[in-house]
Amino acid sequence: MYRQTVKNIVKTDILEVRPARGTGITLNNIPVSPAHVVHNLFRVDMAANGYRAYICEHPLASLKMCGVHDAEVVGIRKEWDFARPEDRSAYSLGLKPNAVLGPPTGRISGGLVEAIEKVGIKRSGIVKEETTVAKKVEFSNPHGKIIIEPAPVGTGLQIYLKFGQFDPIETVLGVYSGLEPKLRRKVAGAITPFLKGLTEETAYHTLGDLIGDIAGTGGVDNGYVKVEVWGSIHTLTITACKKAGVTRAREH
């Protein structure tokens, strides 16, 4: 199978996604990698080579839910919103509003999933070397626990997510198909627990965060992921990705 990107430039109110070919995903000129994560408490920020990107998990989740492997994501915001902590942080570092890539509504997509679905996905002609975690990892903290295990080519991310007191969410993120469209749109529109607390809706936002962190930041195509969480998921997911490492997935 081949690597995938967007067919044409995709725009929302806060960012632009440009087609790329074989380069992976970049956010504000930062190659996406756990090594570039500088904050992962209640959001994921990355920095490298003088650039910074805030709330990386939201555009990454949107891209991965649509099956995108390569893209250049660039912030285009021009106005500050100092009610947002990430805006205050960016301003204090002398950055511009375009450093913040998450939508102000606190939802995963901010229109990005819908825009990608409208423009469409294309194959690049470059063979995709599928990845998995290099080893099984178990990690826990006061917010919950996570287990990630290796899986062969074609498995996708087999996800079990238990969020608070709500029923578990079990699904598969396909390497090329992303999430099933109905579930994709439900996750895309779900608001963050940071604004709304623990609800059934924010459970689906947390699923998006998990996808953005493990498939996006972690670069994991195939794996068995089990998470139980009672708050922010990012410390669990990013720490697990760093501990597990990434390797080429084996054939069945």
Describe this protein's structure.
The chain is of the alpha+beta class and 252 residues long. It has two domains: 2-125, Ribosomal Protein S5, domain 2, CATH 3.30.230.20; 130-248, lpxc deacetylase, domain 1 (2-Layer Sandwich). Helix content is 26%, strand content 30%. It has seven helices and 17 strands. It has helices spanning 57-65, 85-92, 112-119, 181-188, 193-196, 200-217, 234-244; strands spanning 2-6, 10-11, 15-19, 25-27, 30-31, 37-39, 45-48, 51-53, 71-75, 121-127, 131-133, 137-141, 144-149, 157-163, 169-173, 223-229, 246-248. A five-stranded mixed beta sheet has the order 2-3-9-4-5. Strands 12-13-16-14-15 form a five-stranded mixed beta sheet, with helices on one face. A hairpin with a 2-residue loop joins strand 4 and strand 5 (30-31). Helix 1 crosses helix 6 and helix 6 runs parallel beside helix 7. It is globular.
